[in-house]
TrEMBL record:
<feature type="domain" description="FHA">
    <location>
        <begin position="146"/>
        <end position="195"/>
    </location>
</feature>
<dbReference type="InterPro" id="IPR008984">
    <property type="entry name" value="SMAD_FHA_dom_sf"/>
</dbReference>
<dbReference type="InterPro" id="IPR000253">
    <property type="entry name" value="FHA_dom"/>
</dbReference>
<protein>
    <submittedName>
        <fullName>DUF2662 domain-containing protein</fullName>
    </submittedName>
</protein>
<dbReference type="Pfam" id="PF12401">
    <property type="entry name" value="FhaA_N"/>
</dbReference>
<dbReference type="Pfam" id="PF00498">
    <property type="entry name" value="FHA"/>
</dbReference>
<dbReference type="InterPro" id="IPR022128">
    <property type="entry name" value="FhaA_N"/>
</dbReference>
<dbReference type="InterPro" id="IPR042287">
    <property type="entry name" value="FhaA_N_sf"/>
</dbReference>
<keyword id="KW-0597">Phosphoprotein</keyword>
<dbReference type="InterPro" id="IPR050923">
    <property type="entry name" value="Cell_Proc_Reg/RNA_Proc"/>
</dbReference>
Length: 234
């Protein structure tokens, strides 16, 4: 199954399954999601070898009657769209310059069943943060040296009997990361191979014991910006 197919199938399960009775005619939620995905793919720009920036602010224009049907769902639809767009960005390796925002608006110029999407990037005060992700939880790399292991004194503690108390460390200078094994019993692996020391490009997954960890570089909004995704229907 291709990426588009899996994206749309995911939306059909998450959105259409819950709201199918609401939409017997006019635009369908899956069409809105597909339009958002196409807009992100079209406007995504490569800014460096390891970074692709996609728009983070989207306005979905709908015919008045379609917008009314969407409005009846409150925030449920935009919550689903935000989640699916976030997943799509992760799968494609996109980064956002700020919090992801999706707004649905009525447009009297459009006919029923028509979707038009405008997008842009709202940067605000954004910096880039290295994180290590374990089991879906992200641990920011706030220090130059972050120790990972089973011990309670590790900066990132993992519950894995196959790991040492201080198993490995990540050195992060704000731009580049280095993974170093700390003489662990079972070793640290990248792509199944034990390493003593190795560069960590963004989106690299490594293994400690039986635990997979992933190094990522993510945008972080400043204090004056929203720190979570937003979505509205108007």
């Amino acid at each position: 199954m291709g990426l588009l197919d899996s994206f749309e199938k995911g939306l059909e399960r998450a959105v259409n399954g819950a709201f199918a009775k609401t939409f017997r005619s006019g635009v369908q939620p899956v069409e809105i999601a597909s339009a958002l995905r196409r807009e992100a793919d079209t406007k995504a720009a490569v800014v460096s070898r390891d970074r692709i920036i996609a728009p983070n602010d989207y306005v979905v224009h709908l015919a008045s009657d379609d917008a009314q049907r969407m409005h009846a769902l409150g925030g449920a639809l935009t919550d689903e769209l935000l989640g699916l767009m976030t997943s799509h960005a992760t799968a494609q390796g996109y980064s956002f310059a700020g919090p992801l925002s999706i707004h649905l608006e009525a447009d009297e110029k459009l006919t029923t069943g028509t979707v038009h999407v405008d997008s842009g990037s709202v940067q605000g005060k954004v910096s880039w943060q290295g994180v290590v992700e374990v089991g879906g939880r992200r641990h920011p790399l706030t220090k130059a040296r972050t120790v990972i292991g089973r011990g309670s004194d590790a900066d990132v503690t993992i519950s894995d009997a196959g790991s040492s108390r201080k198993h490995a460390e990540i050195l992060w200078d704000g731009e580049r990361a280095l993974l170093r094994d700390l003489g662990s019993t079972n070793g640290t692996k990248i792509d199944g191979q034990k390493i003593r020391e190795a560069a960590l490009p963004p989106e690299t997954t490594f293994m400690i014991g039986r635990t997979d960890l992933t190094f990522r570089v993510v945008p972080v909004a400043g204090r004056d910006d929203a720190t979570r995704a937003m979505g509205t229907i108007s």
